[in-house]
Amino acid sequence: MNDIRRRITSRALVAGDKLPSVRGCAARLGVSPSTVAEAYDVLAAEGIILARRGAGFFVAAKPQPFAVSETGPQLAREVDPLWVARQSLDAGTDAPKPGCGWLPEDWMPVAALRRAMRALAAAPDAVLTEYGSSKGAAGLRRHISRLLFDQGLACPPDQVLLTGSGSQALDLVCRMLLRPGDTVLVDDPCYFNFQALLRAHQIRIVGVPYTPEGPDLDRFEAALGKHRPRLYLTNSALHNPTGATISAPVAHRVLALAAQHDLIIVEDDIFAAFEPDLSPRLATLDGLERVVRTGSFSKTLSASLRCGYIAARGDWIEALTDLQVAVNFSGPSPMVAELLHAVLTDGSCRKHLEALRNRLSRCRAETQSQLADLGIRPWVQPRGGFYLWCELPGGADAAAIARAALQEGLVLAPGNVFSVSQSMTPFMRFNVSQMQDRSCGRILGRLLEAATRRPPGGQGEP
Amino acid sequence: MNDIRRRITSRALVAGDKLPSVRGCAARLGVSPSTVAEAYDVLAAEGIILARRGAGFFVAAKPQPFAVSETGPQLAREVDPLWVARQSLDAGTDAPKPGCGWLPEDWMPVAALRRAMRALAAAPDAVLTEYGSSKGAAGLRRHISRLLFDQGLACPPDQVLLTGSGSQALDLVCRMLLRPGDTVLVDDPCYFNFQALLRAHQIRIVGVPYTPEGPDLDRFEAALGKHRPRLYLTNSALHNPTGATISAPVAHRVLALAAQHDLIIVEDDIFAAFEPDLSPRLATLDGLERVVRTGSFSKTLSASLRCGYIAARGDWIEALTDLQVAVNFSGPSPMVAELLHAVLTDGSCRKHLEALRNRLSRCRAETQSQLADLGIRPWVQPRGGFYLWCELPGGADAAAIARAALQEGLVLAPGNVFSVSQSMTPFMRFNVSQMQDRSCGRILGRLLEAATRRPPGGQGEP
């Protein structure tokens, strides 16, 4: 292979030249013909040479014509609800990302993942090659059913649908229940991608102010009366971005209002495993009557294993399964579902989750003290998870700071990307697991100081 | 573990009972405490026992309350465009499935897949745990760009977006370009899931009769004038279900008409690798001006590795990337993209594809002779691929036969699921790779005979 590569680079062989026959080359090099054939196949797979059936191998007609320009951070991009997602995804693995929504790679159960992969390499052919069943791997659905049962939610495996991701679970539910022009309630602030998703569905989005105990009930009730929304989309436990948790009385009242106004609730429970103890859940109180629960394992086990799930009423699950076949043919990669199931049933899983919770507690305390030094204080004290929702001092504009930080390779999550009302200008969401690099605090402090300093040439001393 | 399980089964331990302490149990059994802790963790992961933080392990409060009723074939289901998909997905791996749209598991490159998995088990942490970049793994995008280039289509890696599947590629394009109430042209017959997908988008579907050379040009032009469709969705090479291939003059004329009527074309090129030689492509002739090309590797490498791609204009790829973040956060599982890339660049890949083509040629000839014995003849002689689109003798109703065959565990694909006009009653699509089991022919022959026999008590002898 090296010989051929060298001869092409030095132009001893040029485009269209026929390569020596496999047999001839083998004789010259004193190796077996199969060794040469294998080397040619690798070069062909790399696109350096071409196989023409019956005629032999030739130097590829043209080199690959495109420079590889990889997508990096998009500095000029408007700070909209998609801003944080694309910046965090494309920032590269080395950049500090206090704005992103996941844990660092070395927090994940890498040893269990590797074990599961090695075991899967010996799985039956069908697991490695076939589409799997329309609702997704039975073993993982049974396991999810059991996890829900342990949380007090009776949901048989047949009422669990696996999806391509947690986001896709929400998307499928929206596709089933919503039509363009419908109105949906979200929390203000809420997970930025709820807004991006609902916009893709051409939905009218109405925000309800979120309090440390859940949605503001007066405003929630007023919005139901005024806007007749079809759906309320929320996280109940360890709410994104605030880290708050709905209280039992508020949860009860939200459900009563929902019943009164024929409102469906979608509870995205993606942070459930980070709770120190079980908090009230709308799906559990309601028993999947008018609440749909969604989730995934991207935050706790691996985001590289794309798989989400929907737990809902049986007739809705049937409709969602048809819909998923129509738009995606099947759900997650069956291999991915197998790997997740293997990691979930690995004896190390419980300890991994406990270790995550403990490490996050320590990290949260550290980050909080680091931020306090900069005059940044959390809006609420979260019970768990990796977010701190904070107000910047001096009314600083978080979007301007985030834009400046990106120039220095730091991805931040400014408040207004989470806010339908755009009223969160001085707020910022910090991921405490991504603040370990001391440079984060330094850069942030410097930008904050520059932002709150009186503009030069301004009104001068009082 | 067996000891605990036995004691629970025999009700020596009941719900809520505390298990012996790890240390006590280890001493009694003469093993190390870590061995016992590991066993308890496995039982906890199985849901048989519960760990209460600080208090030890307890027998789980209630056994799993649900009988596991797995989804099997749905016998009562209406024969609609989703019928074949759900029946084939849920039939189980042992049922003969001449109606399904994939190759048997032992045709797939299982050894290369296992090699790739073992290699991936040693990949860097980030590959195993992170979301990856917004457009998907750079290596696979570069490889797809090169495959397209080899087919004469200049499309740089930045104009390739990886998606969760081939179907999802089509779905994303529809989401970008269509609004409810828009009109889309499809071939009559066409892949049944095109109809299911477009219905999910609330699109008006107009069918254009398909000829052995491509769409009927007169009817195509008339439909453009009459219905002002936004999009034409088709497969050009080895068309599904007919196996026909568009001719160069028809392709040229379709593009000219599209330009004249400002029509966008989506070319789903999922069967490209099965062609014996390169046929005309709309995307190649057009150069991605008004044609979007989609594809996947589910048919040739593995359907368990869910991943598709879109090749399109740069500005469209940017919009599609935003849209994919909004509805799915990212694309395929990064692990899956890595595995696919490894199999594609494995030296064995070219030989695998060549072997598939040869085996399909033999299979096609065999199946054709088997079907000829039953009086079933193909509508066109396909150049490659695994479909034979056939007319049943005596005007038999293919849907009735498919429904009866399902009772005997045989999944068939009746003509009208592919037909917008519902004019394909006596047609059936056969997957030649799934006809190796001789029972297929026997069952089919028997059902066909019953269907075409004069009904008893009918008009009697003439």
From TrEMBL, chains A, B:
<dbReference type="GO" id="GO:0008483">
    <property type="term" value="F:transaminase activity"/>
</dbReference>
<keyword id="KW-0804">Transcription</keyword>
<dbReference type="InterPro" id="IPR015424">
    <property type="entry name" value="PyrdxlP-dep_Trfase"/>
</dbReference>
<keyword id="KW-0805">Transcription regulation</keyword>
<dbReference type="Pfam" id="PF00392">
    <property type="entry name" value="GntR"/>
</dbReference>
<feature type="domain" description="HTH gntR-type">
    <location>
        <begin position="1"/>
        <end position="62"/>
    </location>
</feature>
<dbReference type="Pfam" id="PF00155">
    <property type="entry name" value="Aminotran_1_2"/>
</dbReference>
<keyword id="KW-0663">Pyridoxal phosphate</keyword>
<protein>
    <submittedName>
        <fullName>PLP-dependent aminotransferase family protein</fullName>
    </submittedName>
</protein>
<dbReference type="InterPro" id="IPR036390">
    <property type="entry name" value="WH_DNA-bd_sf"/>
</dbReference>
<keyword id="KW-0032">Aminotransferase</keyword>
<dbReference type="InterPro" id="IPR004839">
    <property type="entry name" value="Aminotransferase_I/II_large"/>
</dbReference>
<keyword id="KW-0238">DNA-binding</keyword>
<dbReference type="InterPro" id="IPR051446">
    <property type="entry name" value="HTH_trans_reg/aminotransferase"/>
</dbReference>
<dbReference type="InterPro" id="IPR000524">
    <property type="entry name" value="Tscrpt_reg_HTH_GntR"/>
</dbReference>
<dbReference type="InterPro" id="IPR015421">
    <property type="entry name" value="PyrdxlP-dep_Trfase_major"/>
</dbReference>
<dbReference type="InterPro" id="IPR036388">
    <property type="entry name" value="WH-like_DNA-bd_sf"/>
</dbReference>
<keyword id="KW-0808">Transferase</keyword>
<dbReference type="InterPro" id="IPR015422">
    <property type="entry name" value="PyrdxlP-dep_Trfase_small"/>
</dbReference>
<comment type="similarity">
    <text>In the C-terminal section; belongs to the class-I pyridoxal-phosphate-dependent aminotransferase family.</text>
</comment>
